[in-house]
Design goal:
Elements: H1 2-15, H2 19-30, H3 65-70, H4 76-84, H5 86-89, H6 103-116
Helix pairs in contact: 2-6, 4-6
Length: 118
């Protein structure tokens, strides 16, 4: 039972975020990312199903060598760390984004993605 609770803890923490505020935060992401399956703007991969896959897994997007080598399993916690500072987590990745420094903003964004990216 304790293991089950520990496994749920990361998702529960992000469930406290505000999806409505997260949707506003996603406007920054939408310039490069879609929430439609298989859709890509050519700049970034689709985020549809992001919490069910490993980084650089979509065959429809050309990922950087750094991202392909990362082998990150996308969870709310790993996405939180990545969004905070993409270059720190995956040096030499091609995502042209400086990061989202405010934890509350990331919590809201991830709460939105947990619902919208299913």
């Amino acid at each position: 039972m304790k293991l089950f609770i520990l496994l749920l803890a990361p998702a529960v923490a992000f469930a406290d975020g505000d999806p409505a505020r997260g949707e506003k935060r996603f406007e920054e992401c939408a310039a490069c990312h879609s929430l439609e399956s298989g859709a890509s703007s050519g700049v970034g991969p689709s985020l549809k199903g992001v919490f069910e896959r490993t980084a650089a897994e979509l065959p429809t997007f050309q990922y950087s060598p750094a991202m392909r080598r990362s082998r990150i399993k996308w969870t709310p916690r790993s996405l939180d760390e990545f969004i905070a500072d993409p270059q720190k987590m995956v040096p030499a990745n091609r995502m042209p984004y400086a990061g989202m420094p405010e934890a509350r903003d990331r919590e809201d964004l991830i709460a939105y993605l947990l619902k919208a990216a299913k």
